[in-house]
Design brief:
Strands 15, 16, 17, 18, 19, 20, 21 and 22 form an eight-stranded mixed sheet that branches. Among the domains are: 78 residues, no CATH class; 78 residues, N-terminal domain of TfIIb (Single Sheet); 143 residues, no CATH class; 115 residues, no CATH class; 47 residues, no CATH class. It has 22 helices and 26 strands. Helix 11 packs antiparallel against helix 12. The chain is an alpha+beta fold. It comes from Rhizophora mucronata. This is Protein FAR1-RELATED SEQUENCE. It is found in: Nucleus.
């Protein structure tokens, strides 16, 4: 693609026009933000000559290749006064080819000290024709423009010419940027980074408060957060937690940023405020304030003494994160209960408009679609929704639920959380979605109660969720009696952060204690030995983890049903790369529906395969044929593996009294790996110390070995869980009649019949013969239902 002469690229820029975004008064120049806190890249051409206007990026601009697009953006950046680099690329899920690329300002992100999180970028997308077209663009930067060592481009020459305004006009204009020269009590203070301790008097009480300054040391990140929160409260603004940075060596957190709640532009209430405080971890374990920006680009709201006291309760960094965002007011909310509280809101107003339009459309199409909105003093807060299919799936697969809040792992645009289960094909299945407005105990309690209401009061047997106190307290209150388990990704992250300095020998012993302990006594003995050996009696994190051991140590979780979700892992993210915490507003619904349809298509394919394909038998055992007939293909593979492994074990009877007998089952040639199996001949009940059936719902190799020794030729029916069978979608509706009302029961019946009908359609389209058979079966069913056509 030809760009023309570089010297004339911006020749038509007006260099002497009056800039409405600047004022001059005496010797002081005030530069107003456009928008607030941002430097506007204004390289539009003179209205009289727009012949070269195509050389400014715009949506729809076409290139022969992605390299051409990068070269064009690089030339544009050079003349405007910034540099670029290649950002993310996106690949097709079909063939893995690159489908789109982002080229960003070199100051995008925060990985280096020189980067400022600049949002400027262009994105080009590959069309079917092979051309690359700009489909997204952001022109504004959050830093000064101009490349070092080079003359300023025309865009800065224009800013040098400022319009003088009358004192009267200026006096009626509210300042949008608080100058660093404005100090307390009207006295000037040095510009730049504050490097001396300053104490100032605050409020009517006249108490003193220490202002942030470079070099200030804290014992922990929590202490730094509480300090900045207290300072902000007295100064008249609110804060939230910004980005964190991790070590490339061990993944531990090396620095954190605490920012003004109005930082960024993700939501209407945010104005790109640049005020922040950054702390950095020292080798001693303390944290030092190494970067600080005091000035805000918005008015501060000083609070009265009473307001200050009412909101001064300290909040620990690990427990609660405030969003500091505006809420969106609506006049009418359907399907939702009202909860009156005063809370922060992490959801921007535009999201509510988008979602409510989508919800109303879906309700017209799906009678089982459910949504609810948490309301605080007339303002919308958290949002929950689930379509009819998700509600029906919960009646079958809602026994083990993962509450996925992985958006909290990184900087996010949208606090999108999901309820996910495991279906009879071992696939993730969606059980509901939510946007979390506020990460408080009360908000999570509302969300869990709403989920229960949508799922007809179907209490899960187990829930996997983050360790955070607010979430765990809410689960305990909303799901009493439900087994709780911590998310393993969070445990691993905490281990890297708190045990990073320990030796490899310690890590080996630590993992052996966690994953190889067979009894509670073994675990406690090994744990205490490690604590004493390495002098960790005062390690606060290890103390807490020991107290919470029943929620994360495999030994304590084996006897609880988790549908086989690995203890040292997790199920696959339901939305994967389709949808995440950085998904922009305009793409959210389309990506959501695209992924949802793809997941459900994968489930339909597995259903089809289960009825049309047969797994190979590898033994002549009747139990293998029985389970092949009943189980889905994926679950049968799990059973078949256990059956084949059982032949590598020896079973020795160690006890017998009446109908009760006990066996010691050990691996051939391995005296260490052994388990105890108890068998009752009167009812064919069996239990094993490995507790695989209790955890996964499939019999283990040890029990199968005992069955083989006792010539049990058929698996007892109570060991074939209906949720793992091919017919898992049937059989639960009739059982639900006693726990749901007539309206909700009708919804479940509609989805059950619809899914069954879809299977007839899919099978009938494979050939003309199968079509005739499927049609005849449906007609015969119609005759029995007395609705003959």
């Amino acid at each position: 693609m030809a760009f023309g002469s570089g010297s004339s690229l911006f020749s038509n820029l007006r260099s002497t026009e009056t800039d409405p975004n600047t004022e001059e008064c005496g010797k002081t120049v005030i530069v107003k933000a456009y928008p607030l806190g941002m430097v506007r890249v204004d390289n539009r051409y003179n209205g009289e000559d727009e012949g070269d206007s195509g050389l400014e990026p715009y949506i729809g601009l076409e290139f022969d290749s992605a390299d051409d697009a990068r070269e064009f953006y690089s030339v544009f950046a050079t003349h405007v006064g910034f540099k670029i680099r290649t950002g993310q690329l996106y690949r097709s899920r079909t063939d893995g080819s690159v489908s789109s690329r982002r080229f960003v300002c070199s100051k995008e992100g925060f990985q280096l000290n020189s980067r400022t999180g600049c949002p400027a970028f262009i994105r080009v997308q590959r069309r079917d024709s092979g051309k690359w077209v700009i489909d997204q663009i952001h022109m504004e930067h959050n830093h000064e423009l101009g490349l070092e060592g080079e003359s300023l481009p025309p865009v800065f020459q224009r800013r040098s010419s400022m319009a003088l305004k009358s004192p009267t006009e200026m006096s009626h204009r509210r300042p949008k940027i608080k100058l660093l020269e404005e100090a307390d009590d009207g006295h000037p203070c040095p510009s730049g980074v504050i490097n001396v301790k300053r104490i100032r008097r605050v409020g009517d009480e006249g108490h003193l408060i220490l202002e942030p300054h470079a070099g200030l040391v804290f014992n922990s990140a929590d202490e730094a957060y509480q300090f900045y929160q207290s300072y902000a409260l007295n100064a008249g603004f609110r804060i939230r937690i910004g980005q964190l940075f991790r070590s490339k060596n061990d993944g531990s957190i090396t620095s954190r940023r605490f920012v003004c709640s109005k930082e960024g532009f993700q939501h209407p209430a945010r104005v790109g405020c640049g005020a922040f405080m950054r702390i950095k971890r020292q080798e001693s374990g303390t944290w030092i304030l190494d970067r600080y920006q005091k000035d805000h680009n918005h008015n501060l709201e000083l609070q009265t003494g009473m307001d200050r006291k009412s909101s001064a309760a300290p909040k620990r960094l690990i427990d609660e994160v405030h969003g500091g965002l505006d809420s969106f007011s609506v006049a009418k909310v359907t399907n939702g209960g009202l909860i009156k509280r005063s809370q922060e809101n992490n959801i921007g107003g535009d999201w509510y408009t988008l979602l409510f339009d989508y919800f109303q459309t879906r309700q017209a199409e799906d009678t089982g679609f459910f949504y609810s909105v948490e309301v605080d003093n007339g303002n919308c807060m958290s949002v929950f929704w689930a379509d009819g299919r998700s509600r029906f799936s919960c009646s079958q697969f809602g026994d083990a639920v993962v509450f996925d809040t992985s958006y909290r792992q990184s900087f996010y645009l949208v606090p999108f959380a999901t309820f996910v289960g495991v279906n009879h094909h071992k696939q993730p299945v969606l059980l509901g979605c939510a946007l979390i407005a506020n990460e408080s105990k009360e908000s999570f309690i509302w969300l869990f109660h709403t989920w229960l209401r949508a799922m007809s009061g179907c209490h899960p047997k187990s829930v996997i969720a983050d360790q955070d106190l607010a979430i765990q307290q809410a689960i305990a209150q909303a799901f009493p009696g439900t087994h709780r388990r911590f998310s393993m990704w969070q445990i691993k992250a905490k281990e890297r952060e708190n045990l990073r300095s320990m030796s490899n020998e310690f890590k080996h012993e630590y993992e052996k204690c966690i994953y190889q302990s067979q009894t509670a006594v073994d675990f406690s003995t090994m744990w205490n030995a490690i604590i004493n050996k390495y002098g960790l009696k005062h390690n606060a994190w290890l103390k807490v983890m020991y107290e919470k051991r029943e929620s994360w140590v495999p030994l304590y979780l084996r006897g609880k049903f988790f549908a086989g979700i690995p203890i040292n892992g997790s199920i696959e993210s339901f939305f994967g790369a389709f949808l995440n915490a950085q998904t922009p507003l305009e793409e959210f619904i389309s990506r959501y529906e695209q992924c949802l349809e793809q997941r459900r298509e994968e489930e339909r394919k597995e259903d089809f395969n289960c009825y049309n394909l047969r797994a190979y038998l590898q033994t002549k055992e009747p139990v293998e044929e029985q389970c092949r007939r009943l189980y889905t293909l994926m679950v049968f593979k799990v059973f078949q593996k256990e059956l084949l492994q059982c032949y590598s074990y020896l079973g020795i009877k160690t006890y017998e009294e009446g109908t009760i007998s006990r066996y010691s089952v050990r691996r051939c040639g391995n005296e260490v790996e052994k388990h105890a199996v108890t068998f009752c001949a009167s009812n064919l009940n069996a239990s094993c110390s490995c507790q695989m059936f209790e955890f996964e719902g499939v019999l283990c190799r040890h029990i199968l070995r005992v069955f083989n020794l006792l010539d049990v030729r058929e698996i007892p029916s109570h060991y074939i869980l209906h949720r793992w069978t091919k017919n898992a979608e049937y059989g639960t509706v009739s059982n639900a009649e006693s726990v749901v009302n007539s309206s909700e029961l009708k919804t479940l019946v509609v989805w059950s019949l619809r899914e069954a009908a879809c299977k007839y359609v899919e099978a009938g389209t494979t050939s003309l013969e199968k079509y005739k058979l499927a049609y005849e079966i449906m007609r015969e069913g119609g005759r029995k239902l007395c609705w003959q056509r």
